[in-house]
UniProtKB/TrEMBL annotation:
This is DUF3313 domain-containing protein. It comes from the Bacteria.
Length: 237
């Protein structure tokens, strides 16, 4: 049988196998949704501007006049420190009165890093190297079958379909979804009461996760002990 005919048979077998009755609930996907990916400080600024606008609008809509808001000091870390500065600037830009000293009205934010262990999407058995949208090259075909013209044509056709499917599933953002995400929550609080809350989730690249981790505090440096001294009594001759 021609190797090019194997592929339809395998696909047909997979479809027939999928029709068998299972004794456990089938795993269904959620409806299609989208999620942004944070890839630069500019993206942090966009988030800070959105949060600041929501907080400022909430303060203005409150029935009673609220005191100036104090932005709580952020934990250590690249994102935390930068986001606080950006959020402070955007709060002022949106007309919020921000206090330099702690008071009854505070705004605090928290960063939670989530790293999933499972992979994203379905793995492809052929090593595909994407050249452009919908165009792929199958490397080392001799590991899978002889490089006949019909097989190569079929394999490249499947590669193109796989790329198009991956583009449709992952979205046009560079790199697609990742298994690393960050949850950023902000709370507008007055004494023991929450006046407003925001929660935002972003994809991040795995190599960028260190930016969202707190930097451990270094132990205080102990000054070296002073060398021992000895006093000499001068006796007149």
């Amino acid at each position: 049988m021609n190797q090019a005919c194997w592929i339809p048979l395998l696909l047909g077998g997979a479809l027939l196998g999928g029709c068998s009755t299972l004794d456990v609930p089938r795993a269904d996907n959620y409806p299609v949704s989208s999620q942004k990916k944070a890839r630069s400080v500019h993206h942090w600024d966009v988030l800070a501007d959105d949060v600041a606008k929501r907080v400022a609008d909430k303060i203005r809509s409150y029935p009673m006049a609220l005191p100036p808001v104090y932005l709580v000091q952020a934990p250590s870390g690249s994102f935390n420190q930068s986001f606080r500065e950006l959020l402070l600037t955007r709060l002022v830009n949106h007309g919020a009165i921000v206090s330099r000293q702690p008071g009854p009205l505070v705004l605090r934010f928290e960063t939670q890093l989530i790293e999933h262990g499972s992979e994203v999407g379905n793995s492809n058995p052929l090593p595909l190297v994407t050249l452009s949208a919908g165009v792929s090259v199958t490397r080392d075909l001799y590991n899978y079958a002889h490089s006949t013209t019909s097989y190569v044509g079929s394999a490249l056709g499947l590669a193109a379909l796989a790329d198009l499917g991956r583009l449709a599933a992952d979205g046009p953002a560079a790199g697609g979804p990742t298994r690393s995400e960050v949850l950023i929550t902000t709370s507008l609080e007055r004494e023991d009461t929450f006046l407003a809350r925001t929660a935002d989730v972003y994809y991040i690249e795995r190599d960028d996760t260190r930016l969202y981790l707190p930097v451990p505090d270094l132990p205080p440096v102990t000054p070296p002990a002073a060398p021992p001294t000895r006093n000499w009594k001068v006796v007149g001759q």
